[in-house]
Amino acid sequence: MTTVGKLDGRVAFITVGARCRGRSHRPTLAGEGASVPFQTYPGGSPEEFEQTQKIAEFGGSDIAGSNVGVALELQLMPGGTRFDRLNRKGEVMLNAQGISDYIEICTLSARYNHLADSGDGEAYADLFTEDGYFDVVGNRVYRGRKELAACASTAASKTVHVTANPIIEIDGDTATQRTRLIGCLRTADGTRNEFVNTGYYIDELRRTPAGWRFVSRRAECDLNAPELLARLGVSEALAQIG
To answer: Which of left, alpha, beta for 230 (phi over 0: left; psi -120 to 50: alpha)?
Structure first.
C-alpha cells in the first residue's frame, strides 16, 4: 500500500538550505512527499552545496524547479507571533517582512534597556515617536522628547533593566508587545547590586522612516511605584520633571 505524505504534490522552498535549520528541515519535508528546492547563501562552499543536494534527495525529493510555493506551516519565533499567510491555493507563504520586523522590535527593546541603564536621555528619547510617551503606573506619564530624556537621565548608573518572553503582534505598520520586566539596583561604587522589581512592559509601536519606534510604553510593576522609585533613589529627581 502506498503511503501518502502530508505534503504530496507540494513544493517547499527553503532559503539558506545548505546549513543549520535549512539543512535539517529538508529530510522532514522530503519524507512527507514534498519537492524541496533550496537556495544557498553567499559564500557557501561547494562541499556544503553537494552535501545538501544529497540530503535533498532523501525520500525521492526533487530539487529542480524555481516557481514554488511554501507548503509547510511554520512558526519561526517564540511568543506566539506568526509570520505566515495563506495564498489562494491554501499554501502557506513565508512572510520575510514579518521576521525582519520581529527582530527589529526585539532590538529596539534591547536598545531601550541599555540606554535606560546608561542614562543617555537623548538617545533614549529617540526610541519613541515624536508624540510618544512612557506611562509608569502609579507614578505619572512622561510625554514628549524633553520629559522622556529627563526621565532616563535620572536613572544613570542606578538601574539594570532586563526584558524577556516578548509577545509581539504585528499588523502592517503598527505592532503591540507585552514583555516581562525584571529590574535591579546597582551603585557606581560597586557596593550594592540587588534585585528590586518584576513587572511587564505593554507597548504600542509604529513603523517610521527611521525604523520601529515606541508610540507608548506602559510599565506595570509588581512593586508599587512609590516604593520602587524610593528604592532606586530617583523619586525626587523624577518629581522635578515637567
So the answer is: alpha
Same domain? For 58 and 109 the reply is no
Domain interval for residue 232: 99-239
Measured in degrees and rounded to the nearest 5, phi and psi for residue 159 equal: -125, 160
* Distance from C-alpha of 154 to C-alpha of 222, rounded to nearest angstrom: 21
Cell numbers that stand for 60 in this block: 525521492
208 and 164 belong to one structural domain? yes
Q: What is the tens place of the pLDDT at every residue in 132-186?
A: 999 999 999 999 999 999 999 987 778 999 999 999 999 989 999 999 999 999 9
Q: Are 126 and 222 in the same domain?
A: yes
Same domain, 112 and 182: yes
Q: Residues, the chain, total?
A: 242
* Cα gap 65→150, rounded to integer Å: 58
Select from 125, 142, 99, 149 the least CA-distant residue to 214: 125
Q: Could you tell me if 133 and 222 lie in one domain?
A: yes
The residues, any chain, with a CB within 8 Å of residue 24's CB and separated by 6 or more, are: none
pLDDT at 177: 97
Main-chain phi, psi angles of 199, to 5 degrees: 170, -155
Question: How many distinct structural domains can be found in the chain?
Answer: 2
Indicate the DSSP class of residue 99. H
What is the C-alpha separation between 29 and 17, in angstroms, rounded? Answer: 12
Whichever domain contains 204, its CATH number is 3.10.450.50
Does the pLDDT at position 93 exceed 90? Answer: no
Is residue 123 in a domain?
A: yes
Q: State how far the Cα of 58 lies from the Cα of 99, in Å rounded to an integer.
A: 29
